Amino acid sequence: MADAPLMEIEDLGLSYATEQGTLRAVDGVDLALHRGEALAVLGESGCGKSSLAKTLLRTLPRNAYPPTGQLRLQGREVLGLPEERFRREVRWVRIALVMQAAMNALNPVVRVGEQVAEPLRIHRRASRRQARQRAAEAFEEVGIPTDFLRRYPHELSGGMRQRAVLAMALVTEPDLVLLDEPTSALDVLTQASIMNVLKRIKHERGVSFVFITHDVATASELADRVALMYAGQVVEAASARAFFDEPAHPYSRLLMAAVPRLHQERPPSPIPGRPPSLLDPPAGCRFAERCPWAFERCGEPPPMAPCGERHHARCWLHPGLGGER
Amino acid sequence: MTTPQPSTRPPQAAPGEPLLCAEGLHTHFELRQWGFVRVGSVRAVEGVDLTLGAGEAVAVVGESGCGKSSLARTLLGLHRPTGGTVRFDGTPLNGLSGRALKRYRARVGYVQQDPYGALPPFMDIQRILAEPLIIHGVRGRAERERRIDTALAEVGLTPAADTRRKFPHQLSGGQQQRVVIARALLLRPAMIIADEPVSMLDASVRVEILELLRRVQREHRLALLYITHDLSTVRHYVDRALVMYGGRIVEQAPVTDLLARSGHPYTEALLSALGDPDADNARRQREVPGGEPPSLVHPPSGCRFHPRCPHAMQGKCEVEPPPPDFRPRADHRVACWLHE
Ligand SMILES: Nc1ncnc2c1ncn2[C@@H]1O[C@H](COP(=O)(O)OP(=O)(O)OP(=O)(O)O)[C@@H](O)[C@H]1O
Ligand SMILES: Nc1ncnc2c1ncn2[C@@H]1O[C@H](COP(=O)(O)OP(=O)(O)OP(=O)(O)O)[C@@H](O)[C@H]1O
Ligand code: SF4
Ligand SMILES: [Mg+2]
Ligand SMILES: [Mg+2]
Predict the structure, then answer these.
(1) CA distance linking residue A276 with residue B34, whole number of Å
(2) A251-282 pLDDT tens trace
(3) Which atom of ligand 2 is nearest to the CA of B73?
(4) Looking at the 3D structure of chain A, how many domains does it have?
(5) A197 C-alpha to ligand 1 centroid (Å)
(6) What pLDDT score was predicted for residue B3?
(7) Within 13 Å, how many C-alpha atoms sit on residue B85's CB side?
(8) Residues 89-108 of B with CB under 8 A from A
(9) SS3 A16
(10) ipTM for the complex?
(11) Hey, which CATH number is domain B20-107+187-339, 3.40.50.300, 3.40.50.12160, 1.10.1660.10, 1.10.10.10?
(12) Which residue's CA is minimally distant from atom 23 of ligand 2?
C-alpha cells in the first residue's frame, strides 16, 4: 500500500436526531487526499463542513447517529475502530483538529505554553521537559515570541491566540491537520499573516491540511485541491487550478460570480434562492431549484461524474453522465 | 439654536452642502478597574472629520476594534462625544436632548452590528416593525400596516402578509437582515447608518443585501454610511470610502480611486493582503506588515501606523501625527507624511 492516499473518505454519512426529525448533515461524501496536499472544504453556512470535520475525528455531539461509510488512513480503515484505539492511534496522533472558534475555547486559567504542550503529555507521553521544549519550538514555528509561553490566553491578541491553537495542533507532529474556519474571526491583515504561516509550514514540513472555510478567496490561499459542498454533499472536487479557472458544477460557477472582487468592473451577481432544508432535501439534484441549466433528468439524484483528471462534479450535465454539454 | 422639524420634512441642507458634518470628533471611554477606579481611557474615535452629502453613499473601512461602531454610535447620538461637533441638516447634535434627539433618531435609520442579536426573538415581524412607528407617533393601525407592507415590499419580503406573522428564527440570516433594513426604512429617514450589515452572511446573500441597500439608497436619495471591515465589498455599493485606523480616518477618496490609487500605506497593506480568488495565491507569501493593531489605550505616538509601516521615516513619523488632509488629488485625502 505504499502509495495509497494519506486519507480516503468513502460514502461518508452523518445524521443528527432533532426535534423535527433526522437531519442528514453529511451525505455520501467521497474524498481523497495525498501526503503534503492541502484540501479546502468550501461551502455556505450550514452545508455540513463542521459536521464533516467532527465525523473525521469522531468528536460528535450526543445527538449524532454513528457515522456511516469509511475513513482510511494510508489504506487502513479507522472509522470503525473502537473509541479507545481511535483515541490512542488516530486523534491528535495522526490527525489534529483546530475546531471552529477554538481560539476562544482556550482555558483562561492555564498558561498558553502548558496548553500547547498538553497534547504531547497526553498523546505522546512526553516528559514535562520534552513537552516544554517542543511547545517552544512550535511557538517559534507559528511566529509567537517564546516568552508568550508563560502568558494567559487573555493576555494574547486574537491573532496570537489563533497562532497558539495552531501550535497546539502541530506539536504532536500529526500527518494531517484539520482546520475549521481558522481565520474567519480575524481582521484582514491578521488573516493574511496566519495564512502565510500555514503556507510556510505546509511547504517546509510537508504536513497535509484539510482546511474548512466559507470564503472562496481564503480557500484559494492554501488549497491544492478544493471540495465544494452544497446541502450536505460534495458537489465538485477538483484541483485548485481547475476549480478556480474552470469550475464544472453550475453551483461552483454561480458562486464564483457571486464573489466580490477588488478590481473587477462587473459587479458580482447573487445566486437567487437558498439551499434546501437538510431535514427533507429534494430527491433529485439538490441544486436543481436554483440551477439555470436544470433539465428533466435533474429530478433524479446525480452521482459524482468524472470530468477531468482527479476532477468530479455531481451534475447531469457532465459528459460522463451522458449530458449534452 | 433652531429645533429640527418633524421627520417628514425633506433634507434642508442647501444643495452641495453636506447633510451630516462631523468635525474634530472624539469619543473616549473611561477604563475602570473594579468598576470605579479610573485607570485610563480607550480613545475609540480620535479627531474624526467626516461629511456625508444628501443622497451620498460612503463606506467606512477598517479592521476590528479600530473604532467604526463607536463612530457610528456617536453620529447617532448614542454616545456623547468627548470632543468635537456633529451637525445634521444644519443643526448641532450636541445640545439636543429629549424630544429633539428622538426626532433626530427618526430621521436616521440604524442597522446595528450583529444581525442575529438585532431582532427580539419573541416578537413576530409585525410587532417588531410596528414598535418604532408607535414610538414615533404614527397614528392609526391602518396607516402603520400600510407603512409596514411598503417597507417589506421594498426589501423584497413578499407577500408581506406571510412575513408579518413570522418570528425571526423562522427566517434565514439574509431574510432577517432584510427585516432589519425594512425597520430602518420605516420612518422614511434621510440617512441610514449600516454597521457591518453583511459580515455574518454567505457570499451570495451578502451581495443580495448590498444590492438592496444600494437600490433603496438611490431610489430615496438617502445618505448611507456603510461600515465594513472588508474592502472587497465596497466597490459597487458606495460613492466614496474612508479608511479608519486606530480611531482616525487615514484616507478618503472616491471608491474607485481609492482602490486603484491608494495613498496610505495602511490601505496599501489592506489591498495587498486581500486577494481575488486565484489558484496561484497558494504559491506565494503575501506581504503583510508585522506587528499588531494599535492599542487605543496607549496608542503609538505620531502616526498611529508607524510601528508597522514599511515607509516610516525616522524622526518624523513617530513624532508628529500627520494632518488628515494631504491631497494627492483634489478629492483624495491622505493622513500620511509621504504626501506632504
Ligand atoms: N448538534 C446538532 N444537532 C442538530 N443539527 C445540527 C447539529 N450540528 C449541526 N447541525 C445542523 O447540521 C447542518 C450542518 O451544520 P454544520 O455545523 O456542519 O455546518 P457548517 O457548514 O459548518 O456551517 P457554518 O459555516 O455555519 O459553520 C446544519 O443544518 C446545522 O443546523
Ligand atoms: N461602550 C464602550 N465602553 C468601553 N469601551 C468601548 C465601548 N465601546 C467600544 N469600546 C472600545 O472601543 C474600541 C473600538 O471599538 P468599536 O466597537 O468601535 O470597534 P469596531 O471598529 O466597530 O470593531 P469591530 O470591527 O470588531 O466591530 C474597542 O477597543 C472597544 O473595546
Ligand atoms: S444536475 Fe442539473 S440542476 Fe443539478 S447542477 Fe447540474 S444541471 Fe443544475
Ligand atoms: Mg462550521
Ligand atoms: Mg463594530
Answers:
(1) 50
(2) 999 999 999 998 888 999 999 888 999 999 99
(3) 18
(4) 1
(5) 28
(6) 39
(7) 8
(8) none
(9) strand
(10) 0.89
(11) 3.40.50.300
(12) B65
